[in-house]
Design a protein that fits this description.
By secondary structure, this protein is of the alpha+beta class. Helix content is about 25%, strand content about 40%. The chain is built from seven helices and eleven strands.
Length: about 230
């Protein structure tokens, strides 16, 4: 701090205030016991119905994945409700680590009705976008979906896979995807690194209510990068 303030010709108090501003704005990050470092840029993810692979390609990044688990199992109560099938129905469970330019970005757990993806293999999963795979290999076209997002922290396994400290901030995305006929064909939980994503919402005022009524806001939420 003393050396840098001398090189810049400013007081240490002024320098510390400037660094605090850069940390607050996301340009720098402080690591306990290590010092202050330039932050990694956060990835912009528009919250539309696209796959991770499609989203990364649109940003000029190379998408990749490592399949951690692929097996057939019973849906169970929670997954059965999400997919609108009985708890005894067979589903394919897929766990993948999603990469952007080789760096771990998200941990993804998908459930798909087993009769919709016969013969699904690790090779197929790692060589294509999942939505592209569904369409090209199985004739399943995703038309709509419902997604929720909530903040969380990583557990020990998630931290190790994502390469972040234990209890790091993260975003948990849960989504069900449907065909044009309304059939639910996918339930996915995706855990995104909180240090690489920022959510921003573009809001617009609804005009379909009487003026006397309290206004409500509607809009599309997007995630934008920080330098």
């Amino acid at each position: 701090m003393r050396r840098l303030s001398g090189e810049l010709g400013i007081s240490r108090l002024t320098l510390r205030a400037a660094l605090d501003d850069l940390v607050r704005d996301g340009y720098l990050e402080r690591r306990h016991g290590s010092g202050t470092f330039v932050s990694e840029p956060k990835i912009a993810q528009q919250l539309t119905l696209t796959s991770f692979s499609e989203d990364m390609r649109r940003r000029g990044m190379t998408a990749g994945s490592r399949t951690i688990e692929l097996r057939e199992t019973h849906a169970g109560a929670a997954v059965g409700r999400a997919l609108n099938v009985s708890p005894d129905s067979r589903v394919v469970l897929i766990r993948r680590l999603r990469l952007a330019d080789g760096e771990p970005m998200a941990l993804e757990t998908l459930h798909v009705p087993a009769d919709r993806v016969p013969g699904l293999s690790r090779e197929l999963l790692e060589n294509a976008s999942f939505y592209e795979l569904l369409e090209k290999e199985y004739g399943v076209v995703i038309a709509s979906g419902m997604q929720s997002i909530e903040p969380t922290v990583t557990n020990e396994e998630e931290s190790e896979l994502l390469g972040v400290p234990l209890h790091s901030p993260a975003f948990l995305f849960e989504r069900t995807s449907r065909t044009a006929s309304g059939e639910t064909v996918e339930f996915v939980r995706s855990l995104y690194r909180g240090d690489r994503y920022r959510l921003v919402a573009e809001l617009s005022q609804r005009r379909d209510r009487p003026v006397a009524a309290a206004p409500s806001l509607a809009g599309a939420a997007v995630a934008e990068p920080t330098p």
